[in-house]
Amino acid sequence: MIIDAIPIGKEPPWDINVIIEVPFGREPVKYEMDKKSGALYVDRVMHTSMRYPCNYGFVPHTLSDDGDPIDVLVASPVEFLSGCIVRCRPIGVLEMEDEKGPDEKILAVPVDELNPYYAHVQQHTDLPEILLKQIAHFFSHYKDLEDGKWVKLAGWEGADYAADLIQKAIERASA
Predict the structure, then answer these.
(1) What pLDDT does 90 receive?
(2) Which mean pLDDT values do the consecutive 10-residue runs of the chain (175 residues) have?
(3) What pTM, to 2 d.p., does this model score?
(4) Going by DSSP bridges, is the β-strand pair 85-98/29-33 parallel, antiparallel, or unpaired?
(5) What is the dihedral of CA 174, 21, 11, 127, to 10 degrees?
(6) Contact predicate 25/50, CB 8 Å
(7) Residue (of 6, 55, 4, 58) closest to 26 by Cα position
(8) CA torsion, points 121, 124, 130, 136, in degrees to nearest 10?
(9) Which CATH number fits domain 3-174: 3.90.80.10, 3.40.50.11310, 1.10.3210.10, 3.40.630.30?
(10) In this predicted structure, what is the pLDDT of residue 27?
(11) H or E element, residue 87
(12) Are 131 and 75 in contact (CB under 8 A)?
């Protein structure tokens, strides 16, 4: 995969491409795509027996405060394969911090043309409350058994805040 050839999205920051690294519900393995080669590496086998509650990936040509492309959770009733690209729209963000600093997670859904299942969802609060709790629980505990690692959640923010973070990450990457 040549990541440089993949656009940020159709109409960023509201219509973005997410490159999936970790499919939802799969074995507890954290994959990470090498941004230069496009190769998918095993980052680590998670120490907890938890599975990702959503598909997990990143937006190409973005740069978060942590120095990596912006992280995105893609809510979907189906898993997407590692390495595939999913057009999404942001609906919220889980603000968090880990041992390396700020590490927000954008929450998005596939655009309506891909899956009308979420056509009514405009904000993270439009999703079932249990899903938001599962996501927060996962990120509160997924590093629990790893020495020297920790996570603190600050809470959820809405779609406008998520789009603003994406726009800033786009600008940071192009600077």
Answers:
(1) 99
(2) 93 98 89 88 90 96 94 97 97 96 97 95 98 97 94 98 98 95
(3) 0.93
(4) unpaired
(5) -130
(6) no
(7) 55
(8) 150
(9) 3.90.80.10
(10) 85
(11) strand 85-98
(12) yes
- Report which residue type is found at 84: C
How far apart, in Å, do the first and last CA atoms of the chain sit?
Answer: 24
| 8 Å CB contact between 25 and 79 | yes
pLDDT of residue 95: 98
Of residues 21, 42, 10, the one with CA closest to residue 112: 10
Amino acid in position 42: V
Give the side-chain half-sphere CA count within 13 A for 5: 4
Q: Where are the domains of the chain?
A: 3-174
> Quick one: pLDDT at residue 21?
95
